[in-house]
Amino acid sequence: MSVQNVLVTADIALRRRTSVMVALSVLVVLLVLISLGIGSVRLSPFAVIDALFGGGSDVQQVIVREIRLPRTILGFAIGAMLGMSGAALQGLLRNPLASPSLFGAPQSAAFGAVVIIAFGFADVRSYALPVAAIITAFASVFVLLAIAGRNAGLLILILAGLAISSLAGAATALVMNLSSNPFVVLEIAFWLLGSLEDRSFRHVMMALPFIVAGAVILWSQRNAFRALSLGEETAQSLGVDVGRLRLGVILGTALGVGGAVAVSGTIGFIGLVAPHLMRPLIGHDPARLLVPSALTGAALLLAADIAVRLIPSTSDIKVGVLTSIIGVPFFLYLIMRERRALAGGVA
């Protein structure tokens, strides 16, 4: 291939990535406006924009700025964090099935938060909640990588993640059984399903610093991901400290996922789905996947949160339930695809 052909190919790829980023940004903005307008009181996008900037009636301003805006901010931030952390873990392990939910990070974070809530160490608006969630999320990912090893295959990763998730789930159930307050147990049960309903700016201020810190840490490792895609030995020869990279990804994931779970409960599979949706459009470079995966994760969670408000039901459907219903079939499809790829490689 000539140099001119290489330049033309690179230019086409750059234009496509730019177009995808612009389309994603427009989609997220539209979903934000729809999220701010959907509810018992329907508002048009123009009314939403007017209320955001101090126009419209006092009632519209309260609905948009005080009730719906915190929920929408959290939907964007949590979805973006889950999408970015999924892309980062897939880049770190060079495995397309890696994601925070499969590694037990959200379940472990939920366990840490449940301990705080159940035993009355702090209320649901205390900063002790995200701190406990972050510590347990960090521990789960660290333990999984320690158990599975550096070059773990697909089966080992899935089994180790399943074991950690099961242990975290059992520990959470035990804490709920030991709690003497039935109202607290009921509150925890609904919280674990994952929801953005009735969130305030107090929740935003509690989660956002940790989510931003986690995203910054993951973004700072983007060049190391690109080198790691060539193999650990090659990455080390290029000056990448693989141990430091692994610790950075664990810390960034724990900060972001822990902060998210502390205010939303467990919302699964967005970190798995978002990078896969972007890979055919952006390419397989993990460094270039981080931001598109974050925008895709934000769009997915915003869309899911809009959907639970539109689906007719006698009670509120939890957004974590909807993402799991969509995510599990997608996960099974990926497993089947990996199995066919392995079978083809063996043949």
From TrEMBL:
MF term (GO), any: transmembrane transporter activity
Localization per record: Cell membrane
UniProt membrane topology term: Multi-pass membrane protein
Annotated transmembrane regions: 20-38, 73-93, 102-121, 127-147, 154-174, 203-220, 247-277, 289-311, 317-335
Gene Ontology cellular component annotations, sorted alphabetically: plasma membrane
Sections of the chain in a coiled coil: none
Keyword annotations: Cell membrane, Membrane, Transmembrane, Transmembrane helix, Transport
Xref: Pfam families: FecCD
Top-rank taxon: Bacteria
InterPro entries: ABC_BtuC-like, ABC_transptr_permease_BtuC
Homology family: Belongs to the binding-protein-dependent transport system permease family. FecCD subfamily.
Name recorded for this polypeptide: Iron complex transport system permease protein
Organism: Bradyrhizobium canariense
